[in-house]
Amino acid sequence: MAAANMEKRVIVVGTRQSALALTQTGQVIDELKRISEKHGFDYTFEIKKIVTKGDRILDVTLSKVGGKGLFVKEIEQALVDGVIDLAVHSMKDMPFELPEGLINGAIPKRVDPRDCLVMRDGSSLDDLPVGARIGTSSLRRSCQLKHARPDLKLESIRGNIDSRIRKLETEGFDAVVLAAAGLTRMGWQDQISASIPVDVCLPAVGQGALGIECRENDKQIRQLLAYYNDTETELTVRAERSFLGALNGGCQVPIGAYCVISDADQGNKVERQLVMTGMVGSPDGATMLKEVMQGTNPEQLGRDVAAALIARGADRILAEIGG
Ligand SMILES: NCc1[nH]cc(CCC(=O)O)c1CC(=O)O
Fold first, then answer.
1. Within 6 Å (CB) of ligand 1, which residues are found?
2. Which structural domain range is residue 296 located in?
3. In principle, which of 240, 271, 273, 280 could form an S-S bond with 314, CB 3.0–4.6 Å?
4. Is residue 204 assigned to a domain?
5. Residue 75 is part of a domain; what is its CATH number?
6. Dist. CA 29–CA 1, nearest whole Å
7. How close is the Cα of 272 to the center of ligand 1, in Å?
8. Where in the numbering of this chain does the Porphobilinogen deaminase N-terminal domain appear (predicted)?
9. Is residue 200 part of a domain?
10. Could you say which of 85, 93, 174, 218 is catalytic?
């Protein structure tokens, strides 16, 4: 056992104060405690709550305010300043570029990446009556749902997961759209009426995955986090993020991507391929461009899928939205 492992240390974990952030941070800490014990690290963990700009303006339409990474800037500053040692993010809220000196130390195994419907009645997209009112403020979700069902009325809805579910009743929606991952982490999976297949609604880049951010020069934490990384998730999320970066997109544009690993049996050897679908659409769902490609280098694959969509006019769609 390396001597560094034996050193006692209190690791301060920064988190937003939303129920989802606190819950997933708690779950990550439980897992890191388990890994610490297993590998002989003498670490204890402490939570530090941080209020971000995104939390302060949750009642405003975020897509109007604009700006990328509204939920992470203050947390990253605390990491840079040494006030905290770790931060747990939903991968899909993580900006494309990390500040100098910070890295993503681990991407743990991804859970269900799909969007789902919490419905008043019914158990599938097809059960929604003609002209049903659907609550979502994600342009990506409205684009794809409108494309699949032009009759649906997509309306803006804000707030944390629990307040969005409440609005199903109080604001008379027929359904609200949420990520299965958030509901499951909260233990609310019984609220899911229908999972939307990824070929109907391609998830946001990194949806269902977490990112654990730390300082690049913190060797102890990096050693600990290496045990928590999931290689398959890391490769697929890297491809998706490369796609997002090549399109210069934030989370407020109708961009979706989902990458999986497929092991193709080539007779005498198994070849590992990344298979990625990327999507760019107009908010009204009238235009929706999709490409599926495969490759072995995640960054290259992301750029290739982006280039293929740009060749078909994706950059013009995004320029119109101002994404
Ligand atoms: N945009 C907010 C957000 N950021 C991460 C999740 C949970 C899903 C995940 O971890 O990917 C959610 C809620 C949602 O989209 O329903």
1. 90, 92-93, 161, 178-179, 181-182, 207-208
2. 236-321
3. 280
4. no
5. 3.40.190.10
6. 22
7. 29
8. 11-222
9. no
10. 93
Identify whether 93 is a catalytic site residue: yes
Q: Token pair of 247, please?
A: 């399109």
* Residue with CA at minimum distance from ligand 1 atom 5: 90
pLDDT in 10s for each residue of the chain, 323 residues: 454 567 899 999 999 998 999 999 999 999 999 999 999 999 999 999 998 877 777 555 554 444 556 778 899 999 999 999 999 999 998 878 899 999 999 999 999 999 999 999 999 999 999 999 999 989 999 999 999 999 999 999 988 899 999 999 999 999 999 999 999 999 999 999 999 999 999 999 999 999 999 999 999 999 999 999 999 999 999 999 999 999 986 556 799 999 999 987 888 888 889 999 999 999 999 999 999 999 999 999 999 999 999 999 999 998 888 75
